[in-house]
């Protein structure tokens, strides 16, 4: 860990965010990396895409993160940056379950490093609903953890004009509902997923940032570069009873992106055998 610390100690690091993500990222950077943090509030990250739909994200997550970091480095004249990107939708295999996908990238131009951490969580209030009465809106708001979590009100899901964002008071919610309903006859309510408006999302970003720091502090045993982490796995941990290979992880593969040094290690549990309950033969 000390080797990794010396890579970043006393260097300028810009955290590229408009939405106060530095609250959960900056303390970790200061404590574990020793970098001097700059908060990149002046980088307009909304240009890379907005949750409310006015601007669609054009690139994949990694490319978007890279662009955010490079923009922050240029604006604040440094070679070290952290950026975060989130997306929301339905879980790929849990039926009708909303999910929050968060990714955080540390980019270091001096040492040509890119270290990313990604985290998927079902702990989210993400949702939206068309409502025709304020009572229906109140029901949706309560389910959405309002008023601690903000809401957005507009005439329909795709509308980009007359959008009320960051609503956190019942009086404002009623005013927005009345305003939109009188003009358009219908109202669409949705959760405001910007980090500063959504404590649950901010918590997940914090957890993702901790995972990133753990990755950064893991150094390659060969060249001592930061970011030495799991890059793959070998499956087939044998069943404890019948010895048949299961779908569980037998070995984990670690690779250094800098020197390509690779290690194959036992699974994190240190298990030589899998419980028969996970065996397709013993428990079909």
For the structure shown, list the relevant keywords.
284 residues, alpha+beta, 5-stranded mixed β-sheet, 4-stranded antiparallel β-sheet, 28% helix, 27% strand, flat
Give the count of helical stretches: 6
Structure class: alpha+beta
Order of helices and strands: HEHEHEEEEHEEHEHEEE
Numbering strands along the chain, what is their spatial order in the largest sheet? 2-1-3-4-5
Query: In this structure, how is the largest beta sheet organized?
Result: 5 strands, mixed
**Cα gyration radius (Å):** 23 Å
Mean pLDDT: 92
Helix content: 25-40%
Spatial shape: flat
Low-confidence stretches: none
Strand segment tally: 12
Rounded to the nearest angstrom, the distance between the terminal CA atoms is: 44 Å
Beta content comes to 25-35%
């Amino acid at each position: 860990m000390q080797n990794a610390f010396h890579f970043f100690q006393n260097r300028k690091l810009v955290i590229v965010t408009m939405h106060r993500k530095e609250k959960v990222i900056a303390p970790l950077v200061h404590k574990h990396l020793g970098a001097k943090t700059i908060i990149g509030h002046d980088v307009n990250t909304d240009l890379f895409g907005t949750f409310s739909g006015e601007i669609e994200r054009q690139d994949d997550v990694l490319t978007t993160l890279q662009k955010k970091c490079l923009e922050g480095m240029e604006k604040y004249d440094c070679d070290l940056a952290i950026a975060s990107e989130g997306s929301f939708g339905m879980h790929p295999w849990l039926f009708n379950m909303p999910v929050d996908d968060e990714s955080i990238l540390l980019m270091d131009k001096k040492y040509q490093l890119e270290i990313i951490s990604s985290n998927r969580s079902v702990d989210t209030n993400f949702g939206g609903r068309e409502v025709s009465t304020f009572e229906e809106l109140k029901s949706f708001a309560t389910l959405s953890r309002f008023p601690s979590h903000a809401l957005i009100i507009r005439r329909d899901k795709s509308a980009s004009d007359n959008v009320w964002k960051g609503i956190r008071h019942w009086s404002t919610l009623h005013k927005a509902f009345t305003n939109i309903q009188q003009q358009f006859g219908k109202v669409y309510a949705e959760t405001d997923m910007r980090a500063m408006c959504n404590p649950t999302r901010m918590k997940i970003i914090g957890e993702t940032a901790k995972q990133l720091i753990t990755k950064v502090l893991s150094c390659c045993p060969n060249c001592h570069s930061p970011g030495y982490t799991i890059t793959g796995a070998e499956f087939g941990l044998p069943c404890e009873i019948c010895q048949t290979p299961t779908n569980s992880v037998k070995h984990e593969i670690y690779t250094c992106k800098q020197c390509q040094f690779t290690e194959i290690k036992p699974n994190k549990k240190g298990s030589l055998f899998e419980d028969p309950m996970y065996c397709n033969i013993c428990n079909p």
